[in-house]
Structure formats: C-alpha cells, structure tokens
Amino acid sequence: MYGKAFAPEYRGALGELSVNSSIEEVLHTATEQLREAEAAGSDLESAHAGLAAAEAARRLGRVTEADRAWRASYRAARRAGDEGAMAWAVWSGGTLARQRGRLALARRLLALAAELAERGGDVVARGYSLAGLAETGRIQGDYAAVADLHEKLLAEARRRGEARHTVWALEGIAQMHRNTGAHDKALEMFEEAASIALRADDTRGHAWALRGIADVLSLRGQTQRALELLSQAEAGCRRMRLAGALAYNHKMRGNVLFRAGRYEEARAVYEEALAEFREMAEPRGTALATLGLLKSRARLGEDPARTAAALDALGQSLEGTGLRHVREMVDTARAELDPATAGVRR
C-alpha cells in the first residue's frame, strides 16, 4: 500500500510544503526562509532552503538561478558538516546538469551525490541519486546499462511504499519498453504509474504518466483519447507551473497530431514547444521539438533540399552530446522523408 506522495527535497522548516505546491510558491517560500536562516546563522537551514530554491528555479526553467542556488546549498551543508544535505544539493546540481544536456557532468555529480548520501546514511537521497543516474542513461538511449538499475530502484520503492519514487521508476521502465516496441507492456506500466500517482495525489507524476499513456494510444490510432489525456495532464502542469513538463507535454501533442496527419496543427504546437525549450535552455527537448517541426514542414511541402540541410544541421548539433536515441531519431526521420538516404549517416 502506498501512502500520500511527499517531496523529500523540501527539508527542514520547508518540510511541510506539499509535493503539489505551486513551484512559484515554493520558490517564494524558500527564498524567504533562506533569508531568515542566513540572518540566524543556521547553515543547515540555509542548505535546506537553498535546495528548495534550486529545485523550484530548475523546474521553472531558470537555469542560471538554479545553478547558483544548488552550489550555495552545498557550501552551506558543507559548513554544517551534514553529508545528507550535501548529497541533496549535489543531486540537484546533477539533475540540473542533465536538464541542460551536460550528461557527463550529470553522471559525475549524481554519482558523488549517491556516495555522500551513503556516507551520511540518507537512504532516500541515495535512491534519488541512483535514480538520476538511471534516468541519465535512459535519455541517452543506453538501455542495456540502466535497465537493471531501474528495476532495482522500482523494487526498493515498492518495498518502502514510496509512491512518488515508484511512479518515477515505472515511467522510466515503461518509456524504455515503448522505445523498443513493447507497447503493451509500456501501456500497462504507464497505467499503473498513473493509478498510483492519482491515489497518492502526485500531480507531477500523474501528468508524466498520462503523457506516456497518450503516446502509446496515439501509436494505436486513438488520437482523440490521447489528446484528451494530454489536456488533462497540461492542466496539472499549468497549475503547478511545471515549465519542463509542460514543454514536453506540448511536444507530445505535436507528435500525436503529426501521426494523425494533422500537420498544420502539429507544426504550430511544435513551434510552441520549441520556444518553451529554448527559453529554459533544454537541449534535448529543443532537438526533439526541432525534429518534429522539420518533419511537419516537410509534410506541408517544404523544399526537400532545405529539409535535408536542416536535418543534417540538427544531426551535427547532436554529435558529442551523448543523446544517442535522439540522434537515431534524426536518422530515421531523414530516411522516412527521403528513402534514398536510408542507412546513410551524414
């Protein structure tokens, strides 16, 4: 049995904040608490408040602000001599690095966070740090390397009855099944994640699960139902001001519309998602939205030579990023739009 979802990154005096608190509210409250903690000379409370501020800024897409905040949180935790608090700060930094597309840095920071958490005896921080490592490998497309870790983390989360972490693990494994063609299994796991998140009152997890369900249903031709689920998820994202989740929701709406042959609508939604990703400096989302936009324009009659050149530029921009799965998607798109180039990597 799973209890109500909670947010372990809201710590100390901020521990009463809900997992569904508006991110703007979290940032405001954390900033006020940070001022009070610094005035009182409490390094540990400064670390806790700085962590919440860092995570809120990251989720709002304010990456420079988030970068300053997690580093300040780490310094305060180090002064306090609390390795658990240090682990949480470094976890936030690693998560931010992944969001910014700096995957090698993300792996280093998340591995360090897991080590600090283990030394500090913070089981939850260690689990979140290992989960971050698993997610980093997954978005790179390195499924073989992280599948076992995902499964292990899922088993641990189930054993402890942690709804939020169980939902995350289910969604990660489901995404790997979806990307490797096991759509039935993916749908089953996304639906379980949605059910657990709903019962646990985890708006963020529920929104991501609905996005996954919509994706699989769209692949089966259930366009209208997929769009309805995305609208439901979008409402939650807007209520909490989840900038990243909202951008990915819009990108998926573009995918659903594109698959249904509604290319003009898809083009408009991809443009919206692209602007959102660029505003938060999110390279993976930017690449995916750009790819969708290029494919939509091609279906609407864009000059083939211009499309090919744009796809080449997009592919080249991904070289060295570690985003192997996205790079493969670009190659697949090139082959779909110009069969003569199938199997040719430019």
UniProtKB/TrEMBL annotation:
Keyword Coiled coil assigned: yes
Any matching Pfam family: TPR_2
InterPro entries attached to this UniProt entry: TPR-like_helical_dom_sf (IPR011990), TPR_2 (IPR013105), TPR_rpt (IPR019734)
SUPFAM superfamilies assigned: TPR-like
Coiled-coil regions listed: 20-47
Keywords noted in UniProt: Coiled coil, Repeat, TPR repeat
Organism domain of life: Bacteria
Signal peptide (from-to): none
Name of the protein described by the UniProt record: Tetratricopeptide repeat protein
